[in-house]
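hey so u asked for the seq, here:
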Amino acid sequence: MPPKKDVKLYSVQDILDMDPCQPEYTRERVEELFAGKEGISVFDVAEMPISNSDKGWALGRMMPWPDGFVLPEGVTRLRIENNPGLTSVDIPEGVTRLRIENNPGLTSVDIPEGVTDLRIMNNPGLTSVDIPEGVTDLWIVNNPGLTSVDIPEGVTDLRIVDNPGLKGCGE
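ran it, structure tokens below
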């Protein structure tokens, strides 16, 4: 594990403020996962005894990640949500289901091959996005700064809604 110098730490309350949707993540359960620590980092979450899906949920809210951080092996679902300071993100290989939601400062995102289920919603600063081949389920909703997007062949579920700046949409 890389050194934790200058790595952001999150308190129990910070995690609860992220509004975990699973009912088992009560204050008591989150405190138990902290194991007596005052704060945890993305490195701690990667090692926690929780499902890969729940790791992906938490890690997507703890952006931007510090240098040297990689997703734990087996995490295939990632939700990057509510990160006001995030301006760009490189999605690691291995992610197949990706949600990018409510990141007001996000201007660019690099989506790797292998993502098949993609939702890009409520990112007002995003101006363009390249959708890789292989995406079959694609939602692009309420991204007012988006001005172009190319839709690859093979998309079977497509929703493009409320993107007022969208001028070009190829197929």
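The beta strands are 77-81, 88-90, 97-101, 108-110, 117-121, 128-130, 137-141, 148-150, 157-161, 168-170. The longest strand covers residues 77-81.
lmk if thats what u needed
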